Amino acid sequence: MKLTIVEYPDKRLRIKSKEVKSFDEKLHSLLDAMNPLMMSTNGIGLAAIQVAHPIRALILNIPDDEGEQSPDNLLEIINPVISKKSGEIMYQEGCLSVPKFYEDIKRSEFLTLNYQDRDGNTKTLEAEGLLSIAIQHEMDHLEGVLFIDKLSYARRKKFEKEYKRMLKERKES
Ligand code: QAP
Ligand code: CO
Question: How many domains does the chain have?
Answer without folding.
Answer: 1
